[in-house]
Amino acid sequence: MFKILVIEDDNDLNELFCSVLKRNQYQPIGVSNADCALDVLDKEYIDLIITDIMMPGMNGFELIRQLRDAKIDLPILIITAKGDIMDKQIGFQIGADDYMVKPIDISEMILRVQALLRRAKSVNEKKLSFGGTTLEYTTWTMTDANGTQILPQKEFQLLYKLLSYPNQIFTRQQILDDIWGIDQEDSHTLDVHISRLRERLKNNTDFEIITIRGLGYKVSKK
Question: Is the pLDDT of residue 133 over 80?
Fold first, then answer.
């Protein structure tokens, strides 16, 4: 079960975020300030952080800077009332992975958490094998019986996602959210990348990408 650290000084919001995360099978740990958050990080393995910016003591920006300076690269989602474009720019520049402005849609928060955790899983595992095919995340290479080839980044990430969960159907929107970001709505982009991957994989004997009409795609063993 993924552990999520929630840093929010509004008790009602903190309890709401934690309650919703718990209902979605996550293990939340709620704290009210950055100092308490650092104490938790010293004692617990955390998979993702949700943090406010404006809080007593060290603010959210300072906390993120400190974590990134310490080479702690776990996903960070900012949820704040500070919706100015300059605040968003600062948040992303110092190392936040996503940014939401209050008031938020709780269901959207869960979608963003899911997407961030999927990306982190793919990045952290680095290498994936399926039959005689191996994907190397650090070099974006695919090696099979036909040799080794370097894939464009998005094609590699798409194939890595599908191969990570053989036979699992991913909807088109799930793939777009995960690979291109939650605001991406151009499904033609996905069609183009699937077509290119199929051309690259035409001689692969381990697996194939299957279209599930009306839903999305999955990878199945040949």
Answer: yes
